[in-house]
Design a protein that fits this description.
It is built from two helices and twelve strands. It is rod-shaped. A four-stranded antiparallel sheet has the order 1-2-3-4, with no helix packed on it. The protein is 6% helix and 17% strand. By secondary structure, it is mainly β.
């Protein structure tokens, strides 16, 4: 027989001394339905269920927090005798963290965590998280670098070629080692005011392709040399204090004049010598 108990005010069921005592109220039925809000004013709530189904669209944790993002909060996963699994919001680092922790669910702040791996699917759109496989094979196929010429680094599927596609200067590079990159200059260099060797007393070498020449279209200026350079099997041209040739432009070659330095003679000096020698 169905029964309805109706009161005009609050209705209290109390056993013994109530919440301060040790007695229990049991509801022994197949289904216990609460029509209206259910408020549990206790420090611990246990649900001994095999499957829990929640109709709410959202679940709020850390409900009593009234401060501005100063408390950790999340979900613990019981793993028996192993450390708990944990997914939580780290208020100190302002980020989500996932892993395992020796902290108990009763702590107010997470003091240690061993970060764990998160398995995800291959991304299908630009705002999806990427897998390691995607990064290794395809994710780096196009990386845009913010710059004046909107250059693009193109690593390709095999990740063995970098290309900087700009209007000028460096055109592409090839990765030749773990920590080294070779730059191939396929375009004319512009707006270059200085080229310096990075090795102390090192040479700076300009090499043409095949039988091409190194062409200088404007004035070539030499700084004065303090002394003659060492003679070698190649001809070295340099500038120092003007001598008898009247130019101050000298050359030296170990195969010429026994490796002694010689000065190029100016037209005026050559004419004067021709007249003097008859």
């Amino acid at each position: 027989m169905a029964k309805t108990l109706r009161t005009s005010g609050d209705y209290t069921i109390k056993t013994g001394t109530g919440a301060a005592g040790s007695n229990t109220v049991f509801f022994d039925s197949k289904t216990t339905r609460v029509v209206g809000d259910l408020v549990v004013d206790g420090t611990r709530t246990e649900l001994n269920t095999t499957t829990m189904s929640i109709e709410d669209q959202f679940i709020e944790v850390n409900r009593g927090n009234s401060t501005a993002d100063s408390e950790d909060s999340g979900i613990f996963f019981n793993r028996g005798t192993s450390n708990h699994g944990l997914l939580y919001w780290d208020a100190g680092d302002d980020e989500f963290q996932l892993g395992t922790s020796s902290n108990a669910p009763t702590v107010s702040a997470i003091t240690n965590i061993t970060l764990g791996n998160l398995a995800i699917a291959e991304p299908a759109q630009s705002d999806h998280a990427t897998t390691k496989n995607y990064v290794d094979t395809t994710a780096a196929s196009t990386i845009r670098i913010v710059g004046d010429d909107s250059s693009v680094i193109n690593l390709g599927g095999s990740a063995d070629t970098l290309q900087l596609l700009g209007g000028e200067n460096i055109s592409n590079t090839s990765v030749v080692g773990v920590d080294s990159i070779t730059f191939n200059l396929n375009h004319d260099l512009t707006a270059i005011t200085s080229i310096t060797s990075d090795t102390s007393n090192g040479n700076l070498t300009l090499v043409t392709n095949g039988t091409g020449d190194v062409v200088i279209n404007d004035t070539l200026t030499w700084s004065a040399a303090a002394s003659d350079p060492a003679a070698g099997s190649v001809t070295k041209i340099y500038n120092k204090t003007v001598g008898g040739g009247g130019t101050g432009v000298f050359f030296i070659n170990s195969a010429v004049n026994s490796g002694a330095a010689g000065e190029l003679i100016s037209k005026k000096k050559a004419t004067a010598l021709a007249i003097a020698l008859g």
